[in-house]
Design brief:
heterodimer, A: 253 residues, 2 domains, B: 643 residues, Flavocytochrome C3, Chain A, domain 1, five-stranded antiparallel beta sheet, 21 strands
């Protein structure tokens, strides 16, 4: 095993949404390169607690890259420097002893800060509520193999469905646009025959909700794709635009 | 520990042949008139597969549903992390599967400690789940002709597992989440995130509401309803290191237990054989590598103890493929408990690999040579990538190192056939109940059970409760709400005010280590007794010496954790006591004293063919044991053999 790391952390501290935040600087030593980024923060927090200070708040849960709970700006990059990697899967071997790491919450009008690195992403749930599903009641489904889905289409749908809803796309975008997130769900369902009956209505109402939440517009800088830990492609945004156009021309039915 | 007491357990299993029981029960169950459903409010706690599917299907029927979760969004529930797949008896591959075979495999896999009638129903419903999930748009893997693909999975000789890459749980959960949000949009479900259930409100013996703490503001609130549906998952985090998400906890179940719900078979915990080994003392959780990997990966250790050579320098002649050697019929696909114990045995005997010696190899060399790297990448790409990220080793080139970890808990709150606990009006679904997996769960069965309970069982059985019991209207003005709320608040305030020296995490880690070492993969009487003593000491230490900075009136994750650890410290004692009382080995419960000459689990059907359901008797009093005898009518009792 390589030697341990000594790091300087500049972390955004903000007690709640009403109070102004600021950066605080912490020194952490004896960081094992095998630690995950969150485990490094755990070590800092344990020390803060022992000193009677309040630990740094951050959302996290599964710690295996799938729940989408964790996420922070690490040196200005959503989820840090590694491609297709959530914060919980980023490991300290990626850093060098002596590094300074700046850690901030997602910055977006639609994601207000709750505390420290925790933000409110309920806007995503509201967008999904506007139409991110197929309307079928329990008990009324036909036999599963009566719906044939070509393998390639199914794979494309799965690529889009892999979105973990972490919000990195919004955080990485200079406009704080949620287009990649919305396009992933619209694509997933538009690519499947089961999603076809509602595809026009779905895209219109999800986009309307997205606009209402205060997300910015898309100017195709593709930062979202670069930051996405689930590898969601911006080609989904192109599909979203086509779906939206077709729906607008077709009256949104 | 055990007190004699009257048996109040009625499992309510319908009469008749096992294959007809569910039809019969569905006919017997009383219905609530469509126009009356809107008069009822149902509280659903948890938004995993069980909770989200229950909220969706109850909402579709017209009930008013209040859906709670402690995460920032219902989509984060830990079902999302399930990788491998979901079983169903579709028999699409024409390889001999049937409802009866899925039933048989599940009863046998559970080592004859589950309830036959429940398991049969689960197998029956399995096919409906696949139909429904496909209709919801779950992108299951497909064949070129457009039909659904299947794979075989740990412990099964047929290919009955449906999957969406290594993200089946995610896709099923997002399907159920969408179905639930559709009801949010329809106004039938109210979704309430970041509120943690801290107690159950019982009025006239019936569950009528819950008390929650808002995790952002710290505010305590009460919610009233006509039924409470608990879908709060398992208690694997009592071991600290497990594959569970960090927020998984026993609190909601434990508070219901203290209000009168019996806790069944808490010692039935599952160790998953294929997890990434711990790398150091900072380890905060363990990561599962799906057991689907065992379809193509071969498990081995060097034949020579403490062999210093790297794996690629060890020729086949010097490798011991010990699962294939010991279990020629099932080989690498033996059930989880059998595989885990074999791995532990090899490591304890000095054959383990890696820096700690507590790991074995899972090797894809042969599969890659046979099928090509692209095929293997198609099947397992995301898992290999995840492994690489965590360990900085490339499994395409060097074998994975794996070791068992706590993954699932078969025990849970006792429920009858209708999934109702011993508190009328309190239903328990998914991993939080005990009913379907006996002493060991087969792979790809947890997703099946969560969705069966939520989509296809609770919508029927809920009606019986509402239609047959005269429920007085209650509101949160009832004194029971004020009292329960005051209790919950006082407890949290007490924790916040101790201001001792030890961190919550340090106590949790110590508890976990104790439980893993003496109450984990193998157990014995002396160790279990010592564990109970140690847990009591730790509990004392917690209540005198824990340190939680900040206040209860704010977003305080450390305080949340403290409350959950306080409950684990009570629950751990019951888990160990249950393990101590069960003087046999079965499934995931392995008692050193009870094993065959070749170290397999030795069941005692004469004395222990029952569900152990524990009744809370008051703080620091021994719990009372109630026994629900298990009858095996359709599948005769037999010892498991995977040789």
């Amino acid at each position: 095993m390589a030697g341990t790391l000594s790091l300087t952390l500049k972390i955004w501290r903000q007690p709640n949404a009403q109070t102004r935040g600021h950066f605080e600087t912490y020194q952490v030593d004896d960081v094992s390169p095998d630690m995950s980024f969150l485990e490094m923060l755990d070590v800092l927090n344990e020390r803060l607690i022992r000193d009677g200070r309040e630990p740094v708040a951050f959302d996290h849960d599964c710690r295996e890259g799938i729940c989408g709970a964790c996420g922070m700006m690490i040196n200005g990059q959503a989820h840090g420097p590694d491609a297709e990697t959530t914060t919980c899967q980023l490991h300290m071997r990626r850093f060098r002893s002596g590094d300074t790491i700046v850690i901030e919450p997602w910055r977006a009008k639609a994601f207000p800060v709750v505390r420290d690195l925790v933000v409110d992403r309920s806007a995503f749930d509201r967008i999904m509520t506007a139409g991110g599903y197929i309307s079928v009641n329990t008990g009324s489904a036909p036999e599963a193999n009566s719906i044939l889905v070509p393998k390639d289409e199914s794979e494309l749908a799965m690529n889009a469905a892999a979105c973990i809803g972490c919000g990195a796309c919004v955080a990485a975008c200079k406009n704080a646009s949620a287009m990649l997130f919305v396009s992933a769900k619209v694509s997933h369902l538009a690519l499947l025959p089961q999603g076809d009956p509602e595809r026009r209505r779905r895209v219109v109402s999800m986009i309307a909700q997205m606009d209402q939440e205060g997300f910015g517009g898309c100017t195709v800088t593709e930062e979202c794709e670069a930051a996405c830990p689930a590898g969601i492609s911006v080609s989904n945004i192109a599909r979203l635009n086509r779906e939206y156009l077709k729906s607008a021309l077709g009256g949104g039915k | 520990m055990i007190q004699a007491s009257g048996n109040r357990l009625d499992s309510n299993i319908p009469d008749g042949p096992v294959a007809e029981k569910w039809d019969r029960r569905r006919f017997e169950l009383k219905l609530v008139n469509a126009a009356n459903k809107r008069k009822y409010t149902i509280i659903v706690v948890g938004t995993g597969l069980a909770g989200a599917s229950a909220a969706a299907s109850l909402g579709e029927l017209g009930y008013n549903v209040l859906s709670f979760c402690l995460q920032d969004s219902p989509r984060r529930a830990h079902s999302i992390a399930a990788q491998g797949g979901i079983n169903a008896a579709k028999n699409y591959p024409n390889d001999g599967d049937s409802i009866w075979r899925l039933f048989y495999d599940t009863v046998k896999g559970g080592d004859f400690r589950s309830r036959e009638a429940n398991v049969y129903r689960l197998a029956q419903i399995s096919n409906l789940i696949i139909d429904h999930c496909v209709a919801l748009g779950v992108p299951f893997a497909r064949e070129y002709g457009g039909t659904l693909a299947n794979r075989s999975f740990g412990g099964a000789q047929v290919s009955r597992t449906f999957y969406a890459r290594g993200q089946t749980g995610q896709q099923l959960l997002l399907g159920a989440y969408g179905a639930m949000l559709r009801q949010v949009s329809a106004g039938k479900v109210k979704q309430i995130p970041r509120k943690e259930m801290l107690d159950l409100v019982v009025i006239d013996g019936v569950a009528r509401g819950i008390v929650t703490r808002d995790l952002v503001t710290g505010k305590f609130e009460a919610f009233a309803g006509d039924a409470v549906v608990l879908c709060t998952g398992g208690y694997g985090n009592v071991f600290y290191l497990s594959t569970n998400a960090k927020s998984c906890n026993v609190t909601a179940s434990w508070r219901c237990h203290k209000r009168g719900a019996y806790f069944a078979n808490p010692c039935f915990t599952q160790i998953h054989p294929t997890c990434i080994p711990a790398s150091g003392t900072h380890q905060s959780k363990l990561t599962l590598m799906s057991e689907s990997l065992r379809n193509d990966g071969r498990v081995w250790v060097p034949k020579q103890q403490h062999d210093p050579r790297p794996p690629h320098e060890i020729p086949d002649a010097d490798r011991d493929y010990f699962l294939e050697r010991r279990y020629p019929t099932f080989g690498n696909l033996v059930p989880r408990d059998v595989a885990s114990r074999a791995v532990k045995e090899r490591c304890d005997a000095g054959f383990g690999v890696g820096s700690t010696g507590y790991a074995v190899y899972l090797d894809f060399r042969e599969a890659i040579a046979r099928d090509g790297v692209d095929t293997i990448r198609d099947k397992y790409g995301n898992l290999f990538q995840m492994y690489d990220k965590i360990t900085a080793e490339d499994p395409y080139k060097t074998p994975m190192r794996i070791y068992p970890a706590i993954h699932y808990t078969m025990g849970g709150l006792w429920v009858n056939y209708d999934l109702e606990s011993t508190i009328p009006g309190l239903f328990v679904l998914g991993e939080a109940n005990f009913s379907d997996h006996g002493a060991n769960r087969l792979g790809a069965s947890a997703l099946m059970q969560g969705l069966a309970d939520g989509y296809f069982i609770i919508p029927y059985t809920m009606g019986q409760h509402l239609a047959t019991r005269k429920l007085a209207k209650v509101s949160t003005d009832h004194p029971a709400f004020a009292q329960t709320l005051a209790d919950a608040k006082a407890r949290v305030e007490q924790i916040a005010s101790i201001n001792g020296r030890r961190t919550v995490d340090s106590i949790h880690r110590e508890l976990g280590k104790e439980m893993w070492n003496r109450c984990g993969m193998s157990r014995d009487e002396a160790g279990l007794k010592a564990t109970i003593e140690r847990v009591r000491q730790l509990r004392e230490e917690f209540w005198h010496d824990v340190k939680v900075p900040g206040t209860g009136e704010s977003f305080n994750q450390n305080l949340e954790h403290a409350g959950r650890v306080a409950d684990f410290l009570e629950f751990a004692e019951l888990l160990a006591a249950d393990a101590l009382h069960r003087k046999e080995s079965c499934g995931g419960h392995f008692r050193e004293e009870y094993q065959t000459p070749d170290h397999e689990a030795l069941r005692d059907d004469e004395n222990f063919c029952y569900v152990a359901a524990w009744e809370f008797q008051g703080a620091d009093k021994p719990e009372a044991l109630h026994k629900e005898p298990l009858a095996f009518e359709a599948i005769p009792l037999a010892s498991r053999s995977y040789k």
